[in-house]
Amino acid sequence: MEEKEPPLWSAGMRAILGVVLGLSLAVARPVPAGDGLAELAAARGLTRDQVGFVVIDTEDGRVLAEHQGDRPVVPASAAKLPTTIAALAVLGARHRFETELALQGSTLFLVGGGDPLLTPEDLRPAFRRLKERGPRIERFVYDASALPEATEIDPLQPENSSYNPGIGGLALDFNRVLVDWKSGGREVSALAVSDGLRLKADAVRLLMAPTQVPPPYRFLAEGPDRWLMGNLPAAGRIWLPVKQPALNAALVVRRLAEREGVALPPPVAGIRPADARPLRVHASPALAEVTRRLLEHSNNMAAEMVGLGTAARIDGGRPASLAASVATVDAWLKGAVPAVDWTGFARANHSGLSPASRTTPRQMALLMVHGLTLVPELTEVLPAREAADPEGRGGKENGEARSGGFAVRAKSGTMAYARGLVGFLWTHSGRRVAFAVFIYDDSKRVAFDATLDRRVPEMPATAAAWIRRARGLEHSLLGSWAETF
């Protein structure tokens, strides 16, 4: 189903918006953080120098509190918010990503349109129809040309983490496979898993090491992906990332067709011709729902694909690369919100999965204020977050939640020695404030990056303990703002 999308904002309209909003923010007089911050931080084993935040009244633009508001930090997954705001403003909340199965004679085309939520189940009806009245398929072509492909999101992240998969115009099951083994690894399989379906993932090859190989999952080569498995417990399972998403999708769809009684030849890459006849066009959920899910689950692959699709709309064509798409989206964002001082703002990708990205608490808090005008649905797509207990344990990380008389809708960001939370807080008095709080240990983060082993996906226990303390401090700050304002 095709929907008419709203036109992009003109440069003049964006400039006027920036001036109007900027006037209210320029006259604000911030309230100092006060000496209480040092005590709150010390109670968590942290220091006030590791904390930066800005709190803004969304009604009049007044800065209510700040501390180190212009300190550049690693935003981690909070960087998904600029992607979300730009996508909803540019594409529209009702935009849908389409995946097509089309026929030309005896050739079947699988055409990706950048849908980050696609599963085999979405394409199942087409093969039932094809079995009933379709021709014999002699050639099977997959077309992922709508978006550029990359074998991973960030080269500085663990290569075997499912949150760092390949991306492109054709994706399936979040570009990850479930590796399941029994009998100490003698029975091992890679499966594409979605609602009600388990299909063999032929794009992933699992090789058993003759001896123990720590760590147990080592990536060897692409196309198809090959993994060396060793040092496995007697039985278990793990999600592994797919490095060649379009090839994987085509091979899984071939298995789906086989299950439905339709024989397909091995897939080959190609381009859908203009005269191919649509067999089925599957539309994703509306973008408002897509972004709600990607923020709630903090899915990096979905954020990257939404960002790539947004850049394609802005530029009027396929981005040259992931880096080029980020530059396009961020340039649009800076033009749409000129009242923000974007000095030092830099994103390596659309998801925040990079220690190279930088932003400031002020930039993110102001972005949330301006985002309310750019995207009327902003508060609805933000995760309702249940505040953690004083030690940062329990509650929903991203999951309207109330604790101690206040409600929070916000997106968190977490990396080793970097923690952030950006969104809206409804205080005890009923006031809505936008806030951004980041807790960051520069020296420990630098040391962590210097010793990173890409073969090891687990975060060190010391870093995990630091994050728990940071979340505890975050909770205390939210509580104090809820009571004060």
Structural write-up:
The chain is α+β, with helices and mostly antiparallel strands and 485 residues long. The chain has 2 domains: 11-93 and 287-484, Beta-lactamase (3-Layer(aba) Sandwich); 98-283, no CATH class. Helices cover 32% and strands 22% of the residues. The protein contains 12 helices and 18 strands. Strands 2-1-18-17-16-15 form a 6-stranded antiparallel β-sheet, with helices on both faces. It has a 5-stranded mixed β-sheet with strand order 13-5-4-3-14, with helices on one face. Strands 8-7-6-12 form a 4-stranded antiparallel β-sheet.
Could you give a short description of this structure?
The protein is an alpha+beta fold and 485 residues long. 32% of the residues lie in helices and 22% in strands. α3 (80-91) packs antiparallel against α6 (287-297) and α7 crosses α8 (322-336).
Keywords:
about 475 residues; alpha+beta; Beta-lactamase; 6-stranded antiparallel beta sheet; 5-stranded mixed beta sheet; disordered N terminus
Helix content: 25-40%
> Kindly, what is the distance between the CA atoms of the first and last residues, rounded to a whole number of angstroms?
47 Å
User: Any idea what the shape is?
Assistant: globular
Estimate what percentage of residues fall within beta strands: 15-25%
Mean pLDDT: 87
What class do helices, strands and sheet pairing give? alpha+beta
Question: How are the secondary structure elements laid out?
Answer:
Elements: H1 11-26, H2 36-43, E1 51-57, E2 63-67, H3 80-91, E3 98-104, E4 107-111, H4 124-133, E5 139-143, E6 176-182, E7 187-194, E8 197-200, E9 204-208, E10 217-221, E11 225-229, E12 236-241, H5 245-259, E13 268-269, E14 277-283, H6 287-297, H7 300-315, H8 322-336, H9 361-374, H10 378-381, E15 401-403, E16 406-415, E17 418-426, E18 432-440, H11 442-450, H12 461-484
Parallel strand pairs: 4-5, 5-13, 9-11
Antiparallel strand pairs: 1-2, 1-18, 3-4, 3-14, 6-7, 6-12, 7-8, 10-11, 15-16, 16-17, 17-18
